[in-house]
Amino acid sequence: MRTTFSIFLFLLLAVMANAQETSQKDTTNLFTPYFEIRQKEGTNALLKEYLMSYANEEQVVAILFTPQECPRCEGEINVDLDLLREIRPGKEPVLIAAYPDADAAREYLKRFHARNVVIDTEGKHEEIFHYNAGGLNVTYLLQIDMRQGRLMQGGDIVQVSRENLERFCSNTSYFPYHASEDVAVDAVEEAVRERAAQGTHPAIRMEEKKGKSITSGEFCSPAWQGGRFLYADDLASVGRLYETAGDTARFVQEIVPDSAQERAFVDLPAGDYERYKEQGMIFIMMCIPAFAPGGTPMATYSIPDMFEEKEDEVVYSNKPVALALDRPGGKCRMAAFDFELDSIPRYAYTHAMSFCPVDESRVIFGCRRVYHEGEYDVLFNDIRAGKCADIDNIYSDAFYEHAPVAALFGMEDGKKIRRMGQLDGIFKETRTGYFFTAFTGGIHGKRLAYTDGFSGKIYISNTDTYETEKEIALFRVEVEDLEKKLANQCEITYFEQFFGDFNRQITEVQPDGGGIHCLLRTGKDTMWNENDLYEYLYVDYDGNILKRIPIVYEEGDDVLAVSLHREKDGTATPYYFCKNSKGVFLKTIGVD
User: Fold this and answer.
1) How far apart are CA 421 and CA 409, in angstroms?
2) pLDDT in tens, 493-537
3) Quick one: which H or E segment has residue 298?
4) Closest C-alpha among 128, 154, 160 to residue 36
5) CA max distance for the chain
6) What gap in Å lies between CA 563 and CA 221, rounded to an integer?
7) What is the phi-psi region of residue 111: left when phi exceeds 0, alpha when psi lies from -120 to 50, beta otherwise?
8) Checking phi first, is residue 583 left (phi over 0); if not, alpha (psi -120 to 50) or beta?
9) Distance of alpha carbon 369 from alpha carbon 551, whole angstroms
10) Taking the model in full, what pTM does it have?
């Protein structure tokens, strides 16, 4: 993503380079269509309760976000707050942070100029609002009628400017509700109730050095090999390495770029970078942790790539890098990747999602075909207008003729070595392209196993040729009312129709000498991690299930993540990370 910052008296106004034109009368096109938000029908009283501290206000303007879910989106928050105060004198905007740890969130929010703050520790926003993108993924600007408990308008604003915020504040109309559906008790939810843990789960307590606390939000795909594990601290946005000894895991060091590395792609006049960083406009974003097969801890990051395009305008984009800790206690080695952003057809490499180190010098990322900057509303508009070539059109057979799912990159020069795999037929059948794909993979010797996650397929290859030698299916996707869904092509809710069909995901795979260790998540739907069930499976290379263990948790545990504990010989066992009244723990699974 390329962002241009215009500087006025050292205040940065974030302006998207591809900003859409807006009408003086209609405010709906102020917002990105894909990130649509609507209030759920029948939640007026709940919305009033949610903002009860402001019950005496006729109208509240709020900014709703999840800390560090979209760090670059947060760069607009201080600008929004300052402009809203000027536009609505005496009417203080409200900053709403959805995060499970109130103390950690309160400390994090000190970077913003917010005077009114609400911290949603229980995810109440999910009961009130429906997100077209499946969750609270970006920063939402909301206009709320407090007398009725009604969302008037809201969304991810396309372009932050005084003019657009004035138009936003002058709105007097109301978005329609999102109609609620009466749904029977979900089978997954029922299974959760029946899956009760028995006995005590052996546990390892995480300990932090004095003055530091362990972030207790959701752990994003923690990596674990032998006696060490690495996770992404979601608020600090750094990789944190721990070593286990007996029943304790102790902090070792952070896997993080040093000051020179974080500025490696910054070309600005002296002092500007520091000033922008102090104003909360610059982000060093930790993405995903991993271990190379030999045991080297690694982590992907997104760091600033900035230059002054012309006077008072700075172009700011993301530079994808990976860090490798070759020597304990030493400095991390950094590799920067060339993701060929100008290639035709266009590809994106999912460096912010799970990646697979082949060794200390090669890594595999997920690969996707994209259209322009990947905005589906842009794609849909061009399809309707006849401006989209078949090779770029997800509803055309041509799109699926060459659709790789992974790509190998070298760490020394950051160049792509080759792409691999082919998008499964279920995505062509549903015309969903790469929307329901989430690459993950594992290495044992020269054997590579990887998956797109949601098709149920695992692909077996080797690191000599990277050609697919075999594929096995853990499950098959059955789509209900396919013809009816296909008839809604190019609608903003097109993908949402399939959320309930793609409700199973292979979240990890690790091959060894006899088969593949897998984690399988089954949920109510694709997007919402609500009452998810996890299972550990061990399958041979013919797809026969040798072992299947439903994962259950000890009563009172708030589960942060489920992960495979990998050994250097390729064997793996499932653990879960949790917090409870006694602290943060790693625990072995319980067995029904």
Assistant:
1) 15
2) 899 999 999 999 999 999 999 999 999 999 887 766 667 889 999
3) strand 297-310
4) 154
5) 69
6) 7
7) alpha
8) left
9) 35
10) 0.85
